[in-house]
Request: fold
Amino acid sequence: MGETEKRVPTGIVGLDEMLRGGFIQGSTVLVRGAPGTGKTAMGLQYLVHGAQQWGEGGLLISFEEFPQSIHRDAASLGWDLTALEKSGKLHLLFTSPQVLLSNLEIPSSPLNELLMTGQIQRVVVDSVTHFQRLTRDPHDLRRIYNSLVNALRREGVTSLLLGEEKRTTHLRADRGRLSFIVDAIILLRYVEIESAIQRAMVVLKMRGSDHDKEIRRYEIRQGGLVVLEPFKEQEGLLTGIPHRIAAPARR
Reply:
């Protein structure tokens, strides 16, 4: 992949600049973060932007949220999912990890037919952490992750895989080694600065492309996520408890 590869804009102010225009078309992106950091909001914003601005079909696959709660959360941010569903530009699928994997392996399954005939170009899976409940064997989990990612790549869609992590965990063991399988990783974090909780975003990896490597503030507002300026004069941001960079000692 090179810088001339087609980009898929996210519609998130500031993030597309960090990504040099958006995700590389056909790539699989892991979005990691603690509960409440805005992973689902990011996924919905990505799908809504594709449908409204580019006419691209989107699919949200959820293992935990009910349709009513997804619609309610979207409405609180200003998005009418019902209208997009009626237009055929957005599809919501509520299933289990087992059923999803089974359907991806059957060419004639309703899911594969939707991917082929529904002009689906953007997919969000919420969340891939649920696959860890299927097995305790890391090798088997890696096989499951590979099956999922390969199936999405085979359809040529650009996918966001949402993954839960603890608030204070960054360099934990990656069971199943999903971070090695995906093409890009975005990390969402809570950080405490001067006794106030803020949100931080960083692009940890983007295979085949340069990207902004600074850790930036972001907010969740009406209309979705907005990425702001980089944090300045702070160390230890990814630990969640940063501190100011010490001034050099005078001679």
In short: The helical segments are 15-18, 39-54, 67-76, 81-86, 97-105, 110-117, 138-154, 178-181. The longest helix spans residues 138-154. Residues 7-244 form a domain with the Rossmann fold fold (CATH 3.40.50.300).
